[in-house]
Design a protein that fits this description.
alpha/beta, Spore Coat Polysaccharide Biosynthesis Protein SpsA, Chain A, 2 domains, 10-stranded mixed sheet, 253 residues
Length: 253
């Protein structure tokens, strides 16, 4: 692999960051952390682990991640969230990768599996996710959005077989807290775009989302974690709409 910078954005991730850093130790020529002024020991842990740490006020996931990409030393970037880690299989695959064999390849999509309530999820709408996370920054960049950012690359992209593991939620309380945060940001974007929803759709969205995730996307096959994931997906959908209606009514964006 050509010289590789691993970039990570953080905010109060002391419970995750060591696992993330350790997983890329063998493939990273640089580990750059952009920290949003954490109040726990995240930044100190990163420095002790040999990472370069930059403090920056958070202004949206897309902008924060692109800032990290722009400050990296190398053109080839592996962008990770602090609650993700690289499996040994993926690490070995990246180590032996040679993008120079085909100069038209400007990025690689990586499959990601969710670890939820102690289980690696196989279904529930989470099993087939492939994310463009390894890329040449000269030909790719993050979208400028508050949430659900992604990398857009010019030209050809490839796919890898090894997985990222995503430890997105410590427990149910953490899941509820993140759902509250994400739905607030998503509603802000909707309101800014003058989106309008019927109040009846708040009630309708919940059962539609739950049935979609639990039955059609196979949440039932993931046992209890699959049930809870489907339930929280339905909460997310309904709350996003309800908060948009609330913002539209009050005129705030």
């Amino acid at each position: 692999m050509q010289p590789l910078s691993v970039v990570i954005i953080t905010l109060n991730e002391e419970h995750n960051i060591r696992r993330c850093i350790a997983s890329v130790r063998d493939i990273a020529d640089e580990i750059l952390v952009v920290d949003s002024h954490s109040t726990d020991n995240t930044a100190e842990i990163c420095r002790k682990e040999g990472c370069t740490v930059i403090s920056r006020v958070f202004d949206g996931y897309g902008r924060q991640k692109q800032f990290a990409v722009d400050r990296a030393q190398n053109d080839w970037i592996l962008s990770l969230d602090a609650d993700e880690c690289v499996t040994p299989e993926l690490s070995n695959e990246i180590r032996n990768l040679d993008p120079g064999e085909d100069a038209r390849v400007n990025g690689y999509r990586i499959p990601r599996k969710l670890v939820y309530l102690g289980r690696v999820m196989r279904f529930s709408g989470t099993g087939n996710e492939k994310l463009l996370r390894l890329f040449n920054r000269r030909h790719a960049r993050f979208t400028d959005v508050l949430v659900h950012e992604k990398v857009v690359a010019e030209g050809k992209t490839g796919s890898l077989r090894g997985n990222l593991l995503h430890y997105s939620y410590k427990d149910l309380a953490h899941h509820f807290a993140k759902t509250n945060e994400y739905t607030t940001r998503a509603a802000g974007e909707y309101a800014a775009r003058k989106k309008r929803f019927s109040r009846l759709w708040v009630a309708g969205k919940f059962p539609v989302s739950f049935i979609t995730f639990y039955l059609f996307k196979g949440g039932i096959l993931d046992g209890y974690p699959g049930f809870m994931w489907s339930f929280m997906a339905a909460v997310y959908g309904s709350m996003k709409i309800a908060k948009t209606i609330e913002r539209t009514k009050t005129g705030t964006t």
